[in-house]
Specification:
The complex is a heterodimer.
Chain A: E1 8-11, E2 17-20, E3 26-28, E4 30-33, E5 42-47, E6 53-59, H1 65-78, E7 84-90, E8 97-103, E9 106-112, E10 118-120, E11 126-129, E12 135-138, H2 146-153
Antiparallel strand pairs in A: 1-2, 2-3, 4-5, 5-6, 7-8, 8-9, 10-11, 11-12
Chain B: H1 28-34, E1 41-49, E2 55-63, E3 66-70, E4 78-81, E5 87-93, E6 96-103, E7 106-114, H2 118-137, H3 178-181, H4 183-186, H5 190-226, H6 233-282, H7 285-290, H8 293-335, H9 337-343, H10 346-382, H11 386-391, H12 395-447, H13 453-494, E8 516-525, E9 528-538, E10 543-548, H14 554-561, E11 569-574, E12 577-578, H15 584-588, E13 591-594, H16 605-609, H17 618-627, H18 631-636, H19 654-667, E14 672-676, H20 684-698, E15 702-706, E16 718-723, E17 726-731, H21 733-739, H22 742-752
Parallel strand pairs in B: 10-15, 10-16, 13-14, 14-15
Antiparallel strand pairs in B: 1-2, 2-3, 3-4, 5-6, 6-7, 8-9, 8-11, 11-12, 16-17
The chains are: A mainly beta, B alpha+beta.
The structure holds adenosine-5'-triphosphate (ATP) and magnesium ion (MG).
């Protein structure tokens, strides 16, 4: 797809992102990251509500500041992958287990249904899905404090 | 990416205007301060995210005149009076739900919550819509016609005492005292176990006799002889035959004990395995979706083995060890209390050691188990996929994967062994030291004439046994921890409550007519919302065709109707009864299902066809095969109906497998027939033939057929067109063609026999859209 990005973006009164292509046609658009975990800033697609691709952005940096800000703010308002910074306690080492954690989005509790809900990503990163399907990310489990690491280790 | 606004359930006024659920205590004073005189709270929703998606509690309150809201980050309240044109919608993405409030000019507010609150959010929307209706039209909403769950206001259906939504949320972890829970499996063998226990006790008691005899042998025979007295032959014979007798007794008892316990051990193992497997089979598809085959195999296979050995051998050994140690201690104390005291010196040290390593060993062994499962997983993953591995020449990569898993296994084992290997010898060292001390202390006491030489010899003989016991007792630490780790993983399975639970008060359906009704069905796989608000009634004997793009939710609907998964919202009814109220197996007996990916078991063709009805006669099997147009190709096989199909039916072609699975579904003569792409892998002529046969069979049965080739669905009474999880059109072929909507475009695309990528908006499936290219 093109890398010239000859489309326009703006936000309407309903809070929706509106895409206007080179043909002048306006569509509601949603930005979607192609590799949300592996390469979040590379490869972003703008899709319409039906799931058709409107435009492909190779890298966010390719966009001018205004459009980039729109895309980023829309992404930020839709993305939810709290990063676990600390594990305070767990209700039990057997699953289902309730974890009290501190994330970059505040303190919360998550319910881990089974050990298989902890997915190993590349290197030391982990992705934990709770019983409601929210994904929690641990960027580097080596970088956690000793207490959290000890708890986590029991589940791996 | 779903963005369909939640439609109010205007058809069924089931909710009362005012919610029955009281406001949480903490919020009451805060909310009351906001209310004006005579303003009444009707409903509320606690939200747990703020607008910038940080965790924080907020509240949305519906009163009789307005919507009040407060998010976690500000103490201020927003207020929106209820008025015409106001609209509250919800949608969700990646585990976060959004409630948005619109009027004609734009978005007024939006709130965020995690999906745990989604049902509650839906309820709030219902309340808002009803109150809005009332405010705008002035007509009082009708009172609820149905019983609702007091906790979450889901309507309850016939036979439901408990709310199916609330009761699903049981998330209590299994207790830590898992090993004691194994008693359940040992109980049937308690008498054998008791006999085994008594026998081991007796064996050990018999082994305690010889050392006692060394005392008089030493003091009454050997030492007097050294001092010049002649040997008393009678006495010697007596003592020696006593020694022999004790040894023989110990031998007989030991044999009986080992035999009995071995028998019990195997039986406990068998029970444990079958119980676990039976439970596993009852679990829902969702459970299997999340688990790895190898892991489950490891749990049921090797870990049960370890547990039964633990129960029948080690646990009893441990009990006898404890008893023996106390008995020996008693004997020692009775001979000489001081010497006895010295003997017991290493005990506290060993106890301390056990305490320190126990936890580390247990977690270590748990890890070892998990890693072992990982090794099995690699095997279970690659062997069935061997064709792909070979086709892409990735043998070395798979070998590397296996090697890596093994390496990991090695590392974890090394770590545990480090602790463990140090522990055993340390205990041995301690006992050696104990022996030394006794020698020293004993000699000192003899020199002071406090004890005789015989007493010291007896002591030393006892001590040998005493410390062996201690050693084996400390060894139990590792087996116990191993068994505890295994037990935990077994109970993980046994404690898992199926997510399609059996009803508490089942409703039995004597004869099923086959009327299927879907009421506002919503479903999500995890957070991924797949279907929304589907309402559809299929009359008995009707044939309904499901069409739509790849990924539009057709198979999902089948999964829901078969109750492989339970709906997230709404309900599915069979003959007017919620399928969640009918015993699962009883319900599924009425369904003949042909899956998109046919699966055959290892066995003969006849066995595979008769899978759902093992007692079927040969005539029935042949008749079913004929109907499915499988008969002729089966006859061409070297052993006809007795041919083996190989694992997963490898020996057959895709179309042949499909026809066998159609025959399988037909044989059970079901009231409801579900064909999910049943004929997608056969050529058009064969399909036509199967179709002809099916046309007869379909008569009188409720049939749901899915097909990408629209011609397959010619006979359908109605076609239901799905698009992105919603029903978009319903009608017969002619009606739908006249509408010129989704179906029309789908049909045109196939008729033109061209790839319409990008053309019609039905092409939402994108590149995985194989069906349209016929
Ligand atoms: N187990 C699952 N977990 C998560 N998502 C799933 C699961 N099964 C299906 N889906 C998703 O649900 C959607 C509907 O799938 P479904 O199998 O019902 O499609 P379909 O209409 O049968 O398609 P096809 O015609 O290709 O068989 C798809 O987007 C699919 O990715
Ligand atoms: Mg399908």
């Amino acid at each position: 797809m093109s890398t010239t990005h000859d489309f326009q973006l703006h936000r309407d009164a309903f809070g929706k992102l509106i895409f206007t292509g080179s043909d002048g046609e306006a569509h509601e658009a949603l930005p979607v990251r192609a590799f949300p975990i592996g390469a979040p800033d590379k490869g972003i697609a703008l899709v319409d509500p039906h799931g058709h691709e409107l435009a492909w952005i190779d890298a966010l940096a390719d966009l001018d500041a205004e459009r980039r800000q729109l895309v980023e703010s829309e992404l930020a308002s839709r993305e939810f992958m709290p990063v676990i910074e600390r594990i305070i306690e767990v209700s039990s080492y057997a699953t289902p287990s309730t974890w009290t954690i501190v994330t970059n989005r505040g303190e919360t509790k998550l319910i881990l249904k089974g050990e298989e809900d902890i997915r190993r990503l590349a290197a030391q990163a982990l992705l934990i899905a709770d019983s409601n399907g929210i994904q929690y990310l641990i960027r580097d489990r080596g970088a956690l404090d000793a207490h959290s690491r000890k708890i986590l280790d029991r589940f791996l | 990416m779903t963005q369909s606004p939640a439609t109010p359930t205007a058809l069924q006024p089931i909710l009362p205007t005012s919610s029955q659920i009281p406001l949480p205590e903490a919020w009451q004073p805060v909310v009351e301060a906001q209310l004006v005189k005579e303003e009444k709270v009707l409903a509320w929703l606690e939200i747990d995210l703020n607008t910038s998606l940080h965790f924080g509690k907020g509240l949305i309150v519906l009163t009789d005149r307005r919507l009040l809201a407060r998010t976690g980050d500000t103490p201020e309240w927003q207020s929106q009076p209820l008025r015409e044109g106001l609209r509250l919608t919800r949608r969700d993405h990646a585990g976060v739900g959004s409630l948005e409030l619109f009027d004609a000019t734009g978005r007024l507010a939006h709130w965020r919550y995690t999906l745990g609150q989604d049902v509650a959010a839906g309820r709030l929307i219902d309340h808002v819509n009803r109150q809005l209706d009332f405010v705008v039209t002035g007509v009082a909403p009708t009172p609820p016609a149905q019983a609702v769950c007091p906790k979450c206001e889901t309507p309850l259906l016939a036979g439901q005492d408990e709310c199916p939504v609330c009761s699903k949320e049981e998330l209590t972890p299994p207790s830590t005292w898992t090993l004691f829970r194994l008693w359940r499996f040992a109980r049937p063998y308690r008498w054998q176990l008791l006999a085994g226990f008594l026998l081991s006790l007796a064996t050990t008691a018999a082994t305690l006799v010889p050392p006692y005899m060394t005392m008089p042998l030493m003091d009454k025979v050997l030492i007097p002889y050294q001092n010049g007295k002649p040997i008393d032959t009678g006495l010697v014979t007596l003592y020696l035959s006593g020694l022999l007798g004790a040894a023989l007794l110990a031998w007989v008892l030991g044999w009986a004990r080992t035999y009995i316990l071995a028998l019990v051990s195997e039986r406990i193992g068998r029970d444990l395995r079958t119980t676990t497997y039976e439970h596993l089979l009852k679990l829902s598809q969702e459970y299997f979706g999340g688990k790895r085959t190898g892991d489950l195999m490891a749990r049921i296979g090797s870990e049960t083995d370890r547990i039964n050995i633990f129960i029948s051998l080690h646990f009893l050994d441990f009990a006898t060890d404890v008893l023996m140690i106390s008995m020996t201690t008693l004997i020692l104390v009775s001979i000489n209390p001081w010497l006895a005291l010295v003997t017991l010196l290493p005990l506290p040290v060993i106890a301390f050691l056990i305490h320190t390593v126990r936890e580390r060993l247990r977690t270590g062994f748990e890890k070892v188990d998990r890693i072992w499962a990982e090794v099995t997983n690699v095997l279970a993953d690659t062997i069935p996929g061997i064709r792909v591995v070979k086709a892409f020449a990735q043998e070395s990569r798979e070998a590397a994967r296996f090697r890596a898993a093994n390496q990991h296994n090695l590392e974890v084992n090394d770590k545990v062994n480090k602790v463990w290997s140090l522990f055993g010898p340390t205990v041995t060292l301690l006992t050696e030291v104990g022996l030394l001390i006794i020698w020293g202390f004993g000699i000192w006491q003899i020199s002071r004439n406090d004890i005789s030489v015989g007493v010291l010899t007896a002591f030393l003989a006892y001590i040998g046994r005493f410390y062996t016991r201690l050693d084996s007792m400390s060894r139990i630490v590792s087996v116990t921890q191993k068994a505890a780790a295994g037990a935990k993983r077994i109970f993980d399975i046994l404690d898992h409550v199926s997510s399609v639970p059996e009803p508490a008060t089942p409703v039995h359906l004597p004869a099923v007519a086959g009327r299927i009704e879907l009421r506002n069905v919503g479903f999500r796989y995890g957070t991924r919302s797949v279907t929304r608000d589907i309402s559809l009634t299929i009359e008995p004997g009707e044939m309904v065709g499901l069409v739509g793009h790849s990924g539009s939710g057709k198979s999902t609907m089948v999964n829901l109707i078969c109750r492989f998964y339970d709906v997230s919202e709404g309900a599915i009814l069979i003959d007017g009864v919620d399928i969640r109220s009918v015993p699962v197996a009883e319900y599924r007996k009425n369904i003949g299902l042909v899956l998109q990916e046919p699966f055959l078991f290892f066995g003969t063709i006849a066995e595979n066809i008769a899978y759902g009805k093992p007692d079927a006669t040969r005539e029935e099997i042949v008749a079913a095969a004929r109907a499915a147009h499988a008969h002729e190709f089966i006859l061409r096989l070297p052993h006809g109906y007795d041919s083996l199909v190989g694992e997963r039916g490898q020996a057959l072609s895709g179309g042949e497998r499909q026809r066998i699975s159609i025959a399988r579904a037909l044989l059970i003569d079901p009231k409801i027939l579900i064909l999910d792409e049943a004929t997608s892998s056969v050529d058009t002529t064969t399909e036509k033939e199967i179709q002809k046969a099916l046309d007869n069979l379909v008569r009188g049965r409720t049939t749901i057929a899915i097909a990408h080739r629209l011609s397959t669905l010619r006979e359908a009474n109605r076609l239901v067109v799905l698009d992105r999880g919603s029903v978009v059109e319903v009608g017969n072929h002619d009606e739908l063609m006249a509408q010129e909507g989704h179906y029309y475009r789908l049909y045109q695309a196939q008729a033109r026999n061209v790839d319409t990528e990008g053309g019609s908006d039905l092409e939402a499936g994108g590149e995985d859209d194989k069906g349209d290219r016929e």
